[in-house]
């Protein structure tokens, strides 16, 4: 493989470093994702409240002269149509890494490049106002267009109830902005992995719960036999939330039965300017080959994040990730520490600078180089 | 000729009101509807998780007024609230965002949700604050005790009086008395803002009007200056960890 190909492969991996939802903002304000996102479990199009929040609460700069007071932008075009978008432009610098393994030198070439990691357009057709919407989350790039979510969304039910049917993101854990976080990458619950299914949820009183039943094929061809079940539940308060998630996904293969179970606990807390987020997931992959004893692999993924609001529109964030891909194998874990400066200079624009320190075993040389990312994020 | 001019001016004034309301409706939909609801009943799609709940404009009951208890507010009262926001709540300050004409238009639209009544008399007009002096503060402290402000706000103004725990508003939500030591007054921290709150009270909450209890201007300003003197520098711990909203 040429250096250029390896570098390209690294960049494709880093597509995951595109932020899609901002749970630290929800924790900071004591909200659930549904306060600002049409998708009740987070990510994608913002609600009218979310758009309002983006203009009134987030930006550091506030227009003074009358001529610059442009008013409040509402994503709703009349009574039945609402639009939204995300566009990110990113500059990535990757460190060149050389490691020695079993007497051989391995190298992951570094480099730097400009890229557009996310272009998403959102549309909501409000068929029955405040109750039924047709929701589309269309990824326009990079690497071609595809549908991220397309669903019928029934909401406004008793106890904050809702139902989704279609191509959906499955409701597991904290819907972190960073798909490259190990709790998302290792569990498979990323913004790149959707599935065809249905989801029911509610937010009665201080609790929240959601459960989905889907093909379990990440949107691919269904074996029409086995399904994936995902459920999340927890309690929320102004100070934070505590919850648990579970996923069962089995599949029949020619060699036998394969089952992936993922269980996770998550907790968030807010102390004024300081917000904390954490999640720990245990992944159990069970293979039951025909006529042979079953084998199991246990993985552990952990995420801890601290977000500090310095002044209005400016925040510092530190996120630590840990992943042990096989708990029965010693010294095979990897870790990742991301330090971010986040600035919302004006409404609908976010600028971030992130330095990522990565540690991995010598033979996974691509996972060791440090990264520096500067990102412009325009959104509505 | 003069008659024609009068007719033209009157016609223009008559036409301006619907136009302003129409503009107010557009601004309301963009800036207010998400919380206060299309019908102004405080039940917008984003309202359910907000504490305190967004105001229900239909009842015509507003906290921050320059009019007497129970009276609807004047247009300028609504403009003041929309411009400055309400500290410690999710009501943001739209002053830096909306043009002055839009602030007025949306305020007129908000008022139009309430009962159709003749504009009430203004109880608190333009104010001329008395200078803050030690003697006046001492007088204010005595009045604070005489009027039993500490029953709700606590003897040292920390919002921890014996009646604080059970205070609720007209929506049945907790209406915790203000902690004066924080120095963040919902309707504004200037002496004039605090004066207005004392004299008019906050409709829909346990905070009554003290206008009749304090007929003398000197007494009113004495209480204003004493209460404002209770605020303390936040300190690093409070700056870091005190509950807040990004609206502030």
Topology summary:
The complex is a heterodimer of chains A (380) and B (248).
Chain A: H1 3-14, H2 23-29, H3 48-56, E1 76-77, E2 81-94, E3 97-101, E4 104-108, E5 111-128, E6 132-141, E7 146-157, E8 161-168, H4 182-185, E9 195-202, E10 207-214, E11 228-237, E12 240-253, E13 256-271, E14 274-289, E15 295-311, E16 314-324, E17 334-343, E18 349-359, E19 371-379
Antiparallel strand pairs in A: 1-2, 2-5, 2-19, 3-4, 5-6, 6-7, 7-8, 8-9, 9-10, 10-11, 11-12, 12-13, 13-14, 14-15, 15-16, 16-17, 17-18, 18-19
Chain B: H1 2-31, H2 33-36, H3 75-84, H4 100-112, H5 134-146, H6 150-153, H7 191-200, H8 217-229, H9 235-241
Describe the structure in your own words.
The complex is a heterodimer of chains A (380) and B (248). Chain A is mainly β. Chain A has one domain (3-379): Porin. Helix content of chain A is 8%, strand content 54%. In chain A, the strands form two sheets. In chain A, strands 2-5-6-7-8-9-10-11-12-13-14-15-16-17-18-19 form a 16-stranded antiparallel beta barrel. A two-stranded antiparallel sheet of chain A has the order 3-4. In chain A, strand 6 and strand 7 (146-157) form a beta hairpin. Chain A starts with a helix and ends with a strand. Mean pLDDT of chain A is 88; it is low at 9-20. By secondary structure, chain B is mainly α. Chain B folds into two domains: 2-112, Cytochrome c-like domain (Cytochrome Bc1 Complex, Chain D, domain 2, Orthogonal Bundle); 134-241, Cytochrome c-like domain (Cytochrome Bc1 Complex, Chain D, domain 2). Helices cover 42% and strands 0% of the residues of chain B. Chain B has helices spanning 2-31, 33-36, 75-84, 100-112, 134-146, 150-153, 191-200, 217-229, 235-241. In chain B, helix 1 packs across helix 4, helix 3 (75-84) packs across helix 4 and helix 7 crosses helix 8. Chain B is globular. The model of chain B is unreliable at 8-15 (pLDDT under 50). The interface between A and B is medium-sized, with 35 and 30 residues.
